[in-house]
């Protein structure tokens, strides 16, 4: 072993080292899968050769608009080809991609555009009013709007802004991609809901995204040429990195603008979809689909589900329909899925009820993660794996974010003790599989969207009749969870539930708006802290 102390002449160089980046997948895919379908959306059907050319043109067009390496390019686009192309085209010009949730309210989008210092924003025609209102409400320089028309869905270009296809047509098809010099360079920034204040900007690096694409190939048991349906919004953890992963395998990305059971069945039957990811609400829509929306297909569709633990009853109902579901768990801070409920062969012999209960566990760490377990957040000690002792889910490894943009205090707190603190409470079984018990930050997960109870409470407290309120999650058969508000009125004041819901809807995105409002005295501790655990019990009995 002595010679290892002297590694003179064994340094990294261009011949033996290149920064890891998912951009490499598409450069390779251009050559290996040139004639293979890469991106499909109705009549839009592009091969890998055409996909690569369009991505190169996008990178060139962004440079022509003044985007420089390190600048941020935002998008407000559903799951359309332009959103897929932006995942490669934006970093190919050295910029950082910021995909914005199309369901957010004006004030939040204004904050994101300003905080990220977006230089350009690509906007779907249907969302132009939202983008314009947000830009008008911004502090600081406004980004340039590029309109992304979608005539197939009834949204032709307005002519008010430079249009995406026109920009691509006038750009350089042979643009020389700007590859990262260091794999730690920032690739994208995703804003995540928190329990207080404004959303935090989660920064991804090229290395983490690349390793995520390799790791999910193993976890999802992927082989060459999968056909992937974009159910997971590409503004959620960059679509769980799946768009970056597909060129690695010569996969086809099938875009889906409107997520309905009919569109899912049509994509499986017509395009041969083999894989998709989605929240449990998507599984429920398939289970509850009317016969007219169902289509026959002759293969098993592999599904990753996350956003909330799927009920065992849902898993039991969907599998006979031709879907094999694997629960995965993660956060924006872990590039999406970082924990999987890996199926064990001996589970196959279990009675159905017990087998589906096992599949409903949260799971174990995925290959790109170095550590994932349940720990005591105060002592940072491993909790007993006895299926009873509660602790916090922790992560460490290459699949964890760089940190929160312009927020070193929050970053330091999130990485306290050398682990990323998820904020999610869980137990751990003797076989190391975890199971989430509660959200310690009181986050409500509605249809796969994170809703901050504190944010909703802040809006409700502005209602002239409300003196005190608390918002908790209530189970919902369609959305998984929905916000449920408990309110106390000011003396002599009152308001109907409908009035309060309308008030909230005027200030919040629809998925954040309470679906139930109950007037009652709020239970409090001796120090005046509202006891939300009691309200959760009440909410479930409504």
Automatic annotation (TrEMBL):
Q: Which residues cross the membrane?
A: none
Q: Where is the AMP-binding enzyme C-terminal domain?
A: 455-529
GO MF = ligase activity; metal ion binding
Return one Gene Ontology term, BP aspect.
fatty acid metabolic process
Question: What SUPFAM superfamilies does the record point to?
Answer: Acetyl-CoA synthetase-like
- Per UniProt, residues of the AMP-dependent synthetase/ligase domain are 33-405
Q: Give the Pfam families listed for this entry.
A: AMP-binding, AMP-binding_C
Q: What PANTHER family does the record point to?
A: ACYL-ACTIVATING ENZYME (PTHR43859), BUTANOATE--COA LIGASE AAE1-RELATED (PTHR43859:SF4)
Subunit structure of this chain's protein: Homodimer.
Q: Which family does it belong to?
A: Belongs to the ATP-dependent AMP-binding enzyme family.
* Protein name as annotated: 3-methylmercaptopropionyl-CoA ligase
* Gene source species: Rhodalgimonas zhirmunskyi
Starting at the broadest rank, the lineage of the source organism is: Bacteria, Pseudomonadati, Pseudomonadota, Alphaproteobacteria, Rhodobacterales
């Amino acid at each position: 072993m002595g010679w290892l102390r002297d590694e003179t002449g064994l340094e990294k160089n261009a011949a033996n080292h290149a920064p890891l980046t998912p951009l490499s997948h598409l450069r390779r895919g251009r050559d290996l899968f040139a004639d293979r379908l890469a991106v499909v959306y109705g009549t839009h059907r592009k091969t890998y050769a055409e996909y690569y050319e369009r991505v190169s043109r996008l990178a060139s067009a962004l440079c022509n608009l003044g985007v420089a390496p390190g600048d941020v390019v935002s998008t407000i686009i559903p799951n359309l080809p332009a959103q897929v192309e932006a995942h490669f085209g934006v970093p190919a010009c050295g910029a950082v991609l910021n995909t914005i949730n199309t369901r957010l309210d004006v004030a939040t989008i204004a904050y994101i555009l300003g905080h990220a210092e977006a230089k350009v924003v690509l906007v779907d025609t249907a969302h132009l009013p939202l983008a314009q209102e947000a830009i008008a409400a911004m502090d600081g320089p406004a980004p340039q709007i590029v309109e992304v028309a979608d005539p197939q869905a009834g949204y032709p270009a307005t002519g008010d802004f430079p249009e995406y296809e026109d920009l691509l047509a006038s750009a350089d098809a042979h643009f020389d991609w700007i590859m990262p010099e260091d794999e730690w360079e920032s690739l994208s920034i995703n804003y995540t809901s928190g329990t207080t204040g404004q959303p935090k900007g989660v920064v991804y690096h090229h290395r983490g995204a690349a390793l995520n694409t390799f790791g999910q190939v193993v976890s999802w048991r992927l082989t060459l040429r999968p056909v992937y349906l974009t159910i997971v919004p590409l503004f959620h953890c960059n679509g769980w990195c799946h768009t970056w992963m597909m060129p690695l395998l010569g996969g086809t990305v099938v875009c889906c603008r409107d997520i309905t059971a009919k569109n899912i069945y049509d994509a499986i039957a017509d395009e041969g979809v083999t894989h998709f990811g989605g929240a449990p609400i998507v599984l429920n829509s398939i289970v509850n689909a009317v016969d007219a929306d169902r289509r026959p297909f002759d293969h098993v569709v592999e599904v990753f589900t996350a956003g909330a633990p799927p009920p065992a009853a849902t898993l039991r109902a969907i599998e006979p329909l031709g879907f094999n579901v694997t629960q995965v768990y993660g956060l924006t801070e872990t590039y999406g899925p970082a924990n999987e409920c890996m199926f064990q062969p001996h589970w196959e012999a279990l009675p159905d009820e017990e087998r589906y209960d096992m599949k409903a566990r949260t799971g174990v760490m995925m290959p790109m993660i170095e550590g994932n377990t349940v720990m005591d957040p105060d002592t940072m000690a491993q909790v007993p794996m006895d299926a009873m002792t509660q602790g916090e889910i922790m992560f460490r490894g290459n699949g964890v974010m760089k940190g929160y943009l312009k927020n070193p205090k929050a970053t330091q707190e999130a990485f306290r003790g050398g682990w990323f603190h998820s904020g999610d409470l869980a137990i751990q079984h003797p076989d190391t599989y975890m199971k989430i018990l509660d959200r310690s930050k009181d986050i409500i997960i509605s249809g796969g969207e994170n809703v901050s109870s504190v944010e909703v409470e802040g809006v409700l407290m502005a209602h002239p009749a409300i003196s005190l309120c608390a918002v908790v999650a209530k189970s919902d058969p369609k959305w998984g969870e929905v916000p449920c508000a408990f309110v106390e009125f000011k003396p002599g004041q009152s308001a109907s539930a409908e009035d309060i819901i309308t008030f909230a809807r005027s200030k919040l995105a629809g998925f954040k708006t309470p679906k139930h409002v109950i007037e009652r005295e709020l239970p409090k501790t001796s120090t005046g802290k509202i006891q939300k655990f009691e309200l959760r019990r009440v909410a479930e009995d409504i």
